[in-house]
Design brief:
This protein has 334 residues and is of the alpha/beta class. It is built from twelve helices and seven strands. Helix 9 runs antiparallel to helix 10 (266-306).
């Protein structure tokens, strides 16, 4: 902490071949957030992105492993700050909204403020197909995890230190935003969303997002996280499917046996029995893994608490209820 009322703010910019825009991003955020440090992580660019960012005043590091998820995982591990602002290096996000996002994070003692993209009438900035896909994925996430975000794929977020340092990033690519959203929902941390302008890429700058390939990866990530975070409903769904099919196949076999005391369709009877056994096993697996998931959730919560008090709590006067609670908090030994 740089002192009460002066939190250390780090702007994190993962970049891959953004030579046309990275200098503008660095200058805009340094102007919008005086005193911040802008970190540009050059993800093995071949167009001089790192040199241009360094000349613009950014602290530049290079990551050779491809993928935005891997870059952000390294950023979160290496950079020490009180508040983290994550943005893309393509100059599509509004840097002038950053002070409002940081102020909202501190004022309301939040852990995440997400910039919800507003493209206005600029359809070229946010293609209709991507808008439709974003709404569909937002709805699916809400159905799976109980809370629907307005823009789960936004790459513009302000986050607290305790949230960043407790985030177990696993994604390799653009599915990192999905992991961030689910992590916030799983820990039930205080969050907010703010509408921010979203601009078109300049001429000559191209998106690194592959609509179908990355869409499938995101869909797989959501299914995997639903299995890991909420295993009981995940496996219970399979149990219902197996039980329904098993009952449908076995009903006539049972009726025939009651009437004739014979089982003429033995393969059907064996299949129905196997499906009912699978249904029982699915319920048992769900119950066991639900206990495991609860333990993992408690471990994440302890990591979140161990990362320290929020910026707002640290700025409270001595003797305030939040200050006393923070001083008395202890983390159990493993």
């Amino acid at each position: 902490m740089g002192g009460i009322g002066t939190p250390r703010v780090a702007v994190l910019v993962p970049c891959y071949n953004e030579a046309l825009t990275v200098a503008k991003v660095v200058r805009d955020f340094k102007a919008a957030l005086p005193g911040c440090v802008v970190y540009v992580y050059d993800n093995r660019s071949s167009d001089g992105t790192g040199d241009i960012a360094r000349a613009a005043g950014a602290a530049v590091r290079r990551e050779e492993r491809p993928g935005k998820g891997g870059v952000m995982r390294r950023m979160f591990a290496e950079i020490d700050a009180d508040i983290y602002v994550v943005t893309d290096g393509d100059a599509t996000y509004d840097a002038t909204a950053a002070p409002s996002m940081v102020e909202r994070l501190m004022r309301d003692d939040l852990d995440v403020v997400t910039g919800v993209r507003d493209h206005g009438e600029r359809d070229a900035a946010y293609r209709r197909g991507h808008q439709l896909g974003n709404r569909a994925f937002n709805a699916l996430l809400g159905m799976l995890f109980g809370e629907r975000p307005a823009d789960m794929f936004s790459g513009y977020r302000a986050m607290s230190r305790r949230f960043v340092k407790s985030f177990p990033a696993e994604a390799r690519g653009f599915e990192i935003e999905t992991e961030l959203t689910v992590h916030a929902l799983e820990l039930r941390v205080p969050t907010a969303e703010m509408v921010t302008s979203y601009f078109e890429r300049p001429a000559g700058s191209t998106s690194k997002l592959s609509t179908y390939r990355d869409g499938l990866r995101i869909l797989y990530t959501m299914a995997r996280m639903f299995r890991d975070v909420r295993p009981l409903p995940f496996f219970f769904g399979f149990a219902i499917l197996f039980a329904v099919v098993g009952l449908w196949l076995g009903a006539e076999v049972v009726a025939e046996f009651i009437e004739t005391r014979l089982v003429s369709r033995l393969p059907t009877a064996v299949l129905a029995t196997g499906l009912m056994l699978l249904a029982s096993l699915s319920v048992a697996c769900g119950m066991i893994l639900d206990s495991v998931a609860r333990g993992r959730r408690e471990a994440k919560r302890l990591a979140y608490l161990a990362a320290g008090a929020s910026v707002a709590a640290q700025s409270d006067p001595p003797g305030s209820p939040r200050k006393v609670a923070s001083a008395n908090a202890t983390v159990p030994s493993p």
